[in-house]
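> forwarded from #structure-qc
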């Protein structure tokens, strides 16, 4: 019928105009995925176009043994972003958690393919947790205490933080709590 319509992004609630940069880099959920992986590699993505990011990633110095796997990560991310776009276009749900899981799984498979002699590749990094008992004491005169907490319903999921400040007589000086959107429990 020769009706021309502006293409809309399937990632955004607002339906921003779909461009290659928006589709693979600047949409909020996509930025979140890139930041998750670029943070681990020590790469900053602010102000970069997609092509600049990929070139920066490929030029990034890494352990020689992992260099080929690291260079494949942008292709893995773009592939999963394309899969999510197509799923959303055809009415299927494809969450950020699933997309992140798929990327990690594909990178895991690349490592196993590149290094077949490695019997077990850790799928996800699991930190060693240390703890010690903390006994609360009133702050000395002239000092204050600040108690904080954050939470995430899911990881990532809807998140918030809160804190309060009291003086040495336990008088409440300030309280703040705020929703910070969808993020991880570590960010919260």
């Amino acid at each position: 019928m020769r009706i021309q319509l502006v293409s809309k992004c399937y990632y955004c609630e607002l339906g921003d105009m779909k461009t290659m940069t928006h589709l693979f880099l600047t949409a909020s959920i996509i930025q979140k995925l890139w930041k998750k992986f670029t943070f681990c590699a020590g790469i900053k993505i602010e102000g970069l176009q997609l092509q600049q990011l990929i070139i920066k990633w490929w030029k990034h110095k890494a352990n020689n043994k992992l260099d080929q796997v690291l260079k494949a990560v942008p292709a893995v991310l773009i592939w999963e972003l394309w899969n999510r776009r197509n799923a959303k276009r055809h009415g299927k749900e494809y969450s950020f958690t699933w997309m992140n899981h798929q990327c990690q799984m594909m990178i895991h498979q690349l490592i196993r393919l590149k290094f077949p002699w490695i019997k077990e590749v850790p799928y996800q990094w699991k930190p060693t947790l240390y703890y010690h008992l903390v006994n609360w004491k009133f702050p000395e005169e002239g000092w204050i205490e600040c108690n904080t907490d954050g939470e995430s319903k899911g990881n990532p999921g809807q998140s918030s933080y809160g804190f309060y400040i009291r003086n040495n007589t336990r008088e409440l000086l300030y309280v703040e709590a705020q929703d910070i959107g969808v993020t991880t429990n570590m960010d919260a």
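QC bot note: The mean pLDDT is 80. Residues 127-188 form a domain with the Nucleotidyltransferase; domain 5 fold (CATH 3.30.420.10).
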